[in-house]
Design brief:
Layout lengths: L2 H6 L34 E2 L3 E3 L20 E3 L36 H5 L15
Antiparallel strand pairs: 1-2, 2-3
Length: 129
């Protein structure tokens, strides 16, 4: 018997089984060197109001670059009333239905009218008529 064949076909010598390590305990995180900055939810200066995305709220006012953000001018601001007056949408009149009154039973959709079955059908050669 050759030593190669005996190892390949179930020889007596085998590799020792590996043993798992004991569970390692996690070390606690070190304390912060400084306090976390205050949340920056809004930013304004003399001329503009800036929009701060939620992803940048935690960065604080010092790290946010206002030149790269969306902004609104403070001059000639437009404010809309809560009632909707002046918007062009008729909310105070009587006829403000979203859909015309009545029933839609039996009214086909535009899809059904565009893609109807043809009025004729090909006769099958297999049926006797």
């Amino acid at each position: 018997r050759s030593p190669v064949a005996s190892m390949a076909f179930g020889g007596s010598r085998s590799l020792p089984k590996t043993r798992s390590l004991p569970s390692l305990s996690k070390t606690p995180a070190p304390p912060r060197f400084s306090e976390a900055p205050a949340l920056a939810t809004s930013m304004e200066d003399d001329h503009f109001s800036y929009f701060i995305p939620k992803g940048l709220h935690k960065d604080g006012q010092d790290r946010i670059n206002p030149h790269l953000m969306s902004k609104l001018r403070k001059v000639d601001r437009i404010s809309f009333p809560f009632s909707g007056e002046g918007t062009g949408f008729r909310t105070q009149s009587g006829a403000t239905d979203w859909a015309p009154p009545g029933s839609y039973e039996g009214v086909p959709t535009s899809y059904r009218t565009a893609f109807q079955k043809p009025p004729y059908y090909r006769l099958s050669p297999l049926t006797n008529q």
